Amino acid sequence: MHRLAGIDIGVGDRLPEYVLGFGALLTLVLLTEIGVLLAVGSTVVTDGVFLIGVVTTLPFLAGIAFGGYWLRGADLSPSRYPRIAGWILGSVFTFLLINVPIIAVMPPNWWAIVVGWIRWAVALGAGVGLLIGCIEARAIQRSLAAERAALRAAHLEEQRDYLDYLNTVLRHEVLNAATVINGYASLLREEAATTDQQRQWATVVMDEADEMATVIDDVRVLLRTTDGEWTREPIDVSRVLRDELEKLEHKWGPVALETSIPSPVHVRANELVARVFGNLLVNAVEHNDAERPRVSVTVEPGPDTVRIEIADNGPGIPDAEVDVLFERVEGRGSNHGLGLYLVRRLVTQFDGSVELVETGADGSTFAVELPTATPAQSTSESKPAPAVEN
Questions:
Q1: How confident is the model at residue 318, as a pLDDT?
Q2: Which of 14, 112, 282, 359 could form a disulfide with 316 if both were Cys (CB 3.0 to 4.6 A apart)?
Q3: CB 285 within 8 A of CB 295
């Protein structure tokens, strides 16, 4: 509700329809005037004053109709409508206040001129009020949008400062602590443990410290995706995959590898693309219960995208996890944790896609598609960093 001169005006979100209806009503009044005058054979129809009034009314009727249609499609909040309605009614009242006394002081000879004069004043006032109201509403809307954008920018800057602090804490405090824990657990296992049970406990501590370091490193990568601009450049994905496969064998021991990796194949990404394939390859082995894990990597270059498929012979992914596989997981309910969420976020920032192609008792297959690039392409392309997800 909007209060104007002590009167409540309920326009809700139907102001465009009201404006169109008001324009149609004024048009009907004009046509009725002309029809009645022609029916009674009045010569006022051809009178210069009456004709001028009709001609000067038409642009305002057209403007009111256009304003109604414009309001329907305009990106204006309905909260602006009451003020526009206030401008329309206020302007009509003002024009009548000016013209009615003039009519009273200098009354025309014909009633038709009086009706036409009042109709002209109402149309002129409504058209002018609608124009002013729409201009003001757009100005207010833009001002509020600019203010909200400034607040968002300030909030994002504050978030980035806080994330920089968290990154420092992770790098210098938590990661160092995880390294120390791993080192002392290794000493306990090698030098102080006297039973198989004690050595197993020490191994569990070492594995947990390694897991902690991996999660911290993943978080640091995620923080990098929110810092400044996101630069992409031609990256030889064949080289990246071979490096990650070598790391996989070094960490997890003998793995049956099947590869089809032509070289070189370039994609538009950056050095963080290694984390995409590192996480997928580790998942293929870490959760694999086969006597000898088997991993297949296939690279299919295309004119627009490069498709990389990574398949394993593991036990498959539980149905309960498939739908949320690439989402953030609260706590530790998922075997895939932060890794696949990081994969999706990185691939999205590279303008690519990642999907679980199939999964079952015979294993799982993931497919990553990244934009094709050539070494000659510019390395200066950048895009704004993604918004921080709460």
A1: 86
A2: 359
A3: yes
Retrieve residue 358's tokens: 């199939």
Does 78 lie in the same domain as 4? Answer: yes
Listing DSSP states for 17-65 in one string gives HHHHHHHHHHHHHHHHHHHHHHHTT-GGGG-HHHHHHHHHHHHHHHHHH
Distance of CA 276 to the CA centre of its chain: 23
The domain boundary, picked from 186, 202, 224, lies at 224
Q: Note whether 345 and 210 are same-domain residues.
A: no
HSE of 8, CA atoms in CB hemisphere, 13 A: 3
Residues 6+ apart with CB under 8 A from 42: 110, 112
Q: What is the pLDDT of residues 20-59, one digit of tens each?
A: 999 999 999 989 988 888 888 887 778 788 888 889 889 9
Pair (178, 268) in one structural domain:
no
The answer to whether residues 261 and 238 touch, using CB atoms and an 8 Å cutoff, is yes
Q: Are strands 382-384 and 229-231 parallel, antiparallel or unpaired?
A: antiparallel
Q: How many residues does the chain have?
A: 390
Tokens of 143: 């001002």
Domain that residue 371 falls in: 229-384
Characterize the bridge pairing of strands 233-236 and 256-260: unpaired
Residues 102 and 179 in one domain: yes
Q: Beta 7-9 vs 233-236: how paired, if at all?
A: unpaired
Tell me, yes or no, whether 66 and 134 share the same domain.
Answer: yes
Find all residues with CB under 8 Å of 63, minimum gap 6, and list them.
Answer: 127, 130, 131
Q: What's phi and psi for 43, nearest 5 deg?
A: -85, -5
Counting the structural domains of the chain, the total is: 2
**Regions of the chain short of the pLDDT cut 50:** 1-9, 332-336, 378-390
Distance CA 387, CA 153 (A): 10
Q: Please state whether beta strands 363-371 and 305-312 pair in parallel, antiparallel, or not at all (unpaired).
A: antiparallel
Q: Is the domain of 218 the same as that of 272? A: no
The CA distance from 134 to 331, in Å, is: 51
Give me the phi and psi of 296, to 5 degrees please: -115, 130
Cα gap 119→343, rounded to integer Å: 68
- For residues 216 and 326, membership in a common domain is answered with no
